[in-house]
Specification:
The complex is a heterodimer of chains A (94) and B (404).
Chain A lengths: L4 H15 L24 H15 L5 H5 E2 L2 E2 L5 H12 L3
Antiparallel strand pairs in A: 1-2
Helix pairs in contact in A: 1-2, 1-4
Chain B lengths: L1 E5 L3 H6 L3 E5 L3 H5 L2 H9 L3 H26 L6 E3 L6 H8 L3 E5 L28 H18 L2 H10 L7 H9 L3 E3 L16 E3 L15 H8 L5 E4 L8 H14 L4 E4 L14 E4 L4 H4 L5 E4 L3 H10 L3 E3 L6 H10 L14 H13 L1 H15 L3 H24 L1
Parallel strand pairs in B: 1-2, 3-4, 4-5, 5-6, 7-8, 7-10, 8-9, 10-11
Helix pairs in contact in B: 4-6, 4-7, 10-14, 12-15
The chains are: A mainly alpha (94), B alpha/beta (404).
């Protein structure tokens, strides 16, 4: 069964809340314009955790490294909206 | 002496009086999260492991290599951790000696003496005359993974350094020709006869500068107010459900009626609630806690295994992966621990039975104490330093002969 865009967004939010328990991040503060670097203060290790956990939850190889990594660094200005669009495209979510 | 490693270790390196050069990444956070679990889960699946490294770690390697190159620019010799394989090309470029250093046998060090802990399909190796052949086969089959990991990054890095490309066979020959310093005790695992002369099991390397965490007053009080507790901690090994593992550990202690100290470590081994017979702490100096313990349940990392021996305390080893099955097997063979309990398939009943056996049978602790006393007499650092200095003198003499 194909997932809806809302389902995919819900997974992204759940994963971020799980990866950032000590930051006091709350569900309502997570929005499409938030960036991994400035908004969420991600390190490269966080970016690896994010990619692996999203693939675990959404199933299969989603090629996230093509979006998240560039020149030996993760893309800090990657907004969650873009991540959401990319995942929806990969999963064929509508 | 310059120590190049991840930036979170800067203070520790400086405390040891060494010059620090920062490398990107954070091994502790990596292994304490889902990435560490994912890596371990793929360790026995060569294709999946190579893909994992390529996809998630490869992109960071180019930067790491360049940072390592800058850190070593004025070096007289390079000592490197072989799983990253950055030492040989760097030393080749700089024309300086190179040493591989590790606390465990490496995935490419074939031997007939014991099976490859990283890749042992049967997990219960056959006994008798075919055991040597079986053991050797596990190394031959398993080592292909090692040479495949970061292959692409190594190619591009050799190109960056202006070195000619090397095929797998060439890289293997280059690596095997290097001096290897292995920092574990020969009492625990002696050097197999079929390893080359370039490999030296130096004995354990114990830092002269302790950065161990002193016990809290609460922990001292807990330990003092009853029979010696059983210590349980799995270091950096984390489970997909750490709370379930913590619950299992506390229920096992409860079932065998013993007090316990849970070391939550990186693995987050922290139960939601604690009985009065259980104390939980993130980390504490092993040299303080282990001698005060009735037994130590651990993952079988080489450092923790040797700490348990030095403390003269019985171990119960729950290997999660990597080199740990080897140490678990050695400890059982040496009589310092009951047979290993692999993490997969661990139950309250099995853990309880193993703890009961380790505590109830005094021979495990006695054997650990005998071995620990011998370990205390080993000075791995002195031996490693002598080997490095000897090789450097040889290299200088060689260079002088070439110049004349």
């Amino acid at each position: 069964m194909k997932r809806s865009r809302d389902d995919v967004w819900a997974v992204i939010v759940d994963v971020l809340l799980e990866l950032r328990p000590e930051e006091g991040l709350v569900r309502d503060e997570i929005h499409h314009e938030l960036c991994l670097g400035e908004g969420l203060d991600f390190s490269s290790v966080d970016a690896i955790h994010l990619m692996i956990t999203l693939e675990d939850r959404l199933g299969g190889r989603l090629g996230l490294e093509r979006l998240v990594l560039r020149d030996g660094e993760y893309v800090g200005d990657l907004a969650l909206g873009r991540l959401h669009d990319f995942l929806c495209q990969q999963l064929g979510a509508r | 002496m310059v120590f190049a490693t991840h930036r979170p270790y800067c203070a520790r390196v400086n405390r040891a009086g060494l010059d620090f050069r920062g490398l990107s990444g954070d091994a502790e956070r990596f292994f304490a999260g889902i990435a560490g679990i994912a890596l371990r889960e793929r360790w026995r699946r060569p294709q999946a492991l190579a893909q994992f490294c390529d996809r998630f770690l490869g992109p960071f390697m180019d930067r790491l290599f360049v940072e390592a190159e800058a850190a070593c620019a004025d070096a007289d010799a390079v000592l490197y951790w072989p799983l990253l394989r950055l030492g040989p090309p760097l030393a080749e470029k700089l024309g300086i000696p190179c040493f591989a250093v590790a606390h465990y046998p490496l995935p490419y060090q074939r031997t007939r003496a014991f099976p490859n802990p990283y890749f042992d399909p049967l997990r219960r190796p056959p006994l008798g005359p075919i055991s040597g052949v079986y053991n050797l086969l596990t190394w031959v089959l398993g080592e292909g993974v090692y040479w495949r990991i970061f292959r692409r990054q190594l190619h591009s890095w050799r190109r960056h350094l202006g070195l000619r490309p090397l095929c797998v066979g060439g890289e293997r020959r280059q690596t095997l020709a290097l001096p290897h310093l292995l920092g574990f005790s020969p009492e625990l695992l002696s050097k197999p006869r079929d390893w080359p002369a370039s490999v030296d099991v130096t004995g354990p390397w114990r830092s002269q500068v302790s950065d161990a965490i002193a016990p809290s007053t609460e922990l001292c009080d807990f330990v003092a107010r009853g029979p010696a507790p059983v210590t349980i901690g799995f270091g950096s090994m984390i489970d997909r459900k750490p709370e379930d593992l913590a619950k299992l550990a506390s229920r096992a202690l409860e079932r065998c009626g013993r007090r316990g100290v849970l070391l939550s470590g990186w693995g987050g081994l922290a139960p939601r609630s604690l009985s009065s017979d259980l104390f939980q702490t993130a980390a504490v100096d092993h040299d303080w806690l282990f001698p005060r313990s009735a037994a130590v349940v651990h993952h079988g990392g080489s450092g923790t295994t040797m700490a348990a021996l030095r403390a003269g305390v019985a171990s119960v080893i729950v290997p999660f992966g990597f080199d740990q099955p080897l140490w678990a097997h050695r400890m059982a063979s040496l009589g310092a621990a009951p047979p290993a309990l692999p993490a997969r398939g661990l139950t309250v009943e099995r853990l309880c039975a193993a703890i009961d056996r380790a505590v109830g049978d005094a021979s495990f602790g006695q054997r650990a104490a005998e071995l620990g006393a011998r370990l205390e007499r080993e000075d791995g650092i002195e031996r490693a330093v002598a080997l490095v200095e000897g090789a450097q003198r040889e290299e200088s003499a060689h260079a002088a002969r070439r110049a004349s």
